[in-house]
Write a structure and sequence with these properties.
275 residues, Four Helix Bundle (Hemerythrin (Met), subunit A), mainly alpha, 2% strand
Length: 275
């Protein structure tokens, strides 16, 4: 009877809901590997599309896991490995095959730098999750540095521009190399950037936000490469605002304990009329 009970438990096994986020992560991983295949065949447009698909799957897996309540350490580690390949190794190899291979040894050194920056960023993020003291809740609205998916798309901007401009200068090794170095530096920097995960839109801005989203989708539908490049430039333009917002929140947090201490002192200094 005990054996039958154990066998029934084994048949029940793992919930399918717990597998869905990991399946999405593996789909992102497959998309990243497929982008490398397209790049080896010289189909760079398809390679960029595959990286974008990987970014979409990467954005979905964590949200689906939290929505279903099935987050796990295994899923977090798998997601980090997928991010390193899809948004660290793959964009660097695509840009090397499209442009930097003409830069000789220096082009390969720049190519190596980008996945190294991605690995360092992901390692810092993973160790931050193991910190004994959790950070303040408001820091969840910010990333430290540019996240890996955004960094990959920013690094691909010169290649994306060349698709629309039909010109050689965006693919010049110097332009691509400088972009890789700058984006890699942003990834490992301490600059706070908006995470857009916990952001809330005020009621009076809902309709303008929907209108802006419709305009963005219209541009992406008519001229996807221009739209993607503009999105990257807008993201870069938001970095100073995210830094200011982070400093404002940090200043308010530092001021709050001081106000609490002052109020406690006032309470302690009140005359005790019960004596």
């Amino acid at each position: 009877m005990d054996r039958d009970y154990r066998s029934r438990r084994g048949l029940r096994g793992f919930s399918v809901n717990r597998l869905i986020p990991n399946v999405l992560t593996l789909a992102a991983l497959c998309s990243g590997l497929t982008a490398i295949r397209f790049a080896l065949r010289g189909e760079f447009r398809l390679a960029v599309i595959a990286i974008i698909v990987a970014a979409i799957f990467d954005a979905l897996d964590g949200r689906v896991a939290r929505r279903l309540g099935v987050t796990s350490q295994f899923g977090a580690e798998l997601d980090s490995l997928s991010d390193f390949l899809c948004f660290g190794v793959t964009p660097a190899l695509v840009l090397y095959l499209a442009s930097l291979k003409d830069g000789g040894a220096l082009g390969w050194v720049v190519t190596l730098m980008f996945p190294i920056c991605s690995a360092l960023r992901l390692a810092r993020f993973n160790t931050g999750l193991l910190a004994d003291t959790p950070p303040p809740a408001w820091t969840g609205s910010f990333f430290t540095g540019v996240p890996a998916p955004a960094g990959a798309l920013l690094a691909l901007i010169p290649l994306v521009v060349s698709f629309e401009a039909e010109a050689a200068w965006p693919r010049h090794p110097l332009a691509v190399g400088v972009t890789l170095v700058v984006v890699g530096g942003l990834m490992v920097s301490r600059l706070p950037t908006f995470s857009f995960k916990k952001g809330r839109i005020p009621r009076h801005l809902v309709l303008p936000s929907l209108l802006a989203a419709a305009l963005v989708m219209g541009v992406m539908a008519s001229s996807p490469w221009i739209g993607l490049s503009l999105l990257g430039l807008v993201y870069i333009g938001l970095i100073p605002f995210s830094w200011l917002a982070y400093r404002r929140q940090a200043t308010q947090e530092r001021a709050a304990p001081s106000a609490d201490v002052v109020s406690l002192r006032r309470v302690d200094n009140r005359p005790n009329f019960e004596e």
